[in-house]
Design goal:
CATH topology: Sodium/glucose cotransporter
Helix content: over 70%
Distance between the termini: 80 Å
Oligomer: single chain
Number of domains: 1
CATH class: Mainly Alpha
Shape: globular
Radius of gyration: 23 Å
Number of helices: 20
Order of helices and strands: HHHHHHHHHHHHHHHHHHHH
Structural class: mainly alpha
Largest sheet: none
Length: 499
Amino acid sequence: MFPRHAYAKIRFFMRAIDLGVIALYLVGITWFGAQFRKSQHSLRDYFLGGQTSPWWAIAFTIVSAETSTLTVIGTPALSFGGNLGFLQVVFGYLLARIVISVLFLPHYFKGDLFTAYELMQRRFGVRLRKLTAGLFLVLRALAEGVRVFAISIVVSVILGTGEMLSIAVIVGLTLFYTFHGGMTAVIWTDVVQMILYIAGALVSLIVMLDLIPGGWPYVMNLAAEAGKLSVFDFRFEFSMGFFSTTYTFWAGVLGGCFLTTASHGTEQMLVQRLLSARNQRDARTALFASWAVICFQFTLFLFIGLILWVYYRDTGLAVPAKLDRIYPQFIWDHLPVGVAGLIMAAVLAAAMSNLSSALNSLASTSIMDFYKLRFTGRQESHYLRMARMATLVWGVVMFGIAYVARHVDSVLEAGLGIASILYGALLGVFLLGVLTKRVSERAAMAGMVAGFSVNLYVRFATPIAWTWYVLIGTLVTAGVAMLASVLLGDYRKQAPAHE
């Protein structure tokens, strides 16, 4: 028998190897991203990667922007505590991509756009451009703050550090390469990090199955008996109970469709990736390819949650108070040395990937939709310098919001819920912009205020599930805008020309 201090030394050595793997990854990806500084000569380079990236790289960066640490740690928690019903939302994601490719992409590739909100100025006017851009800044800052807090859950498991120090480590490193390399760094680090964290998830699944006697058949049998393999819920009872159930087929497909149409069609963080494609055809190809990756990814993490449920059931281990901790905690405590470090690095990869995307899109909207509109005629080098400063400022903002977000229950549902409150107003006005020619700017702004206000009420005063927020906000925004346009006497026969 080894003395207790000998076991402690062995455990310390094993943890040192894992930490070494993680440190090597963090240093390597930060160095890699910073190398793209040399190619940043203009705003087109810094915000759109010079529009030279291949479609498959754009597809990976769309997935990276669409998912994050919330996916990695939040999705297994959903199936651990429930079933596979979240996949109903993913089917809505596919329907949304069809809508975006038909309605929005032709408009985004007509002209020379840097942000989604320039389209609003073209259709309505500069005031609505600023309103939609400002709403995006609020939306993305709040939602990304929750995501940044999710990072601290992982880092605190690894290092045993406090939440703020954990956040500071990742925000600081991600900010460094995003500040220097711009969108080009975001795209190519996204590619590396996507491959790493999907590979890490696959490795963890294989290792987990090896820990369970009976393996995959045993897991599936137990999960089936407990009803945890259920995907579809077709119940349709038109009542408050119907709307308060988060994962039904109708809530999933309609909610997922409206949510993704809003995020990928109106929010700068995703639209910026489409605008970075070489042409409209590449953007469309990347958009649909990204769904295939998303579907595989969510399915993978949901099955990881089922495996964890079986393992905890059979071993009698105490379940963490916060289910969001269950996957990273299991990896760190139970997987072999080196493997745990690799998979934790993969989880951090997802976090850094999404954070870099958010920082660059927040900076692009700040500069193109606000700063450059006010301070015109400056040299390109001046705007590029201000773009980097905006990136730095938003990094500090992310840190602050993450601190406030420490008390949320489910980080995945909190992030999606925040976004959904604001997405309805954005999607409603964008649909008015591309589908109508008679709604005025004043009426569209009134519709946005109404849609946002109704969603705030729905969120805080009703039991309606977050999957319905975007649909409700979109319908209210569009309906109020069309009514207001008539009442205000602004109903036009054609759209005003705002170029």
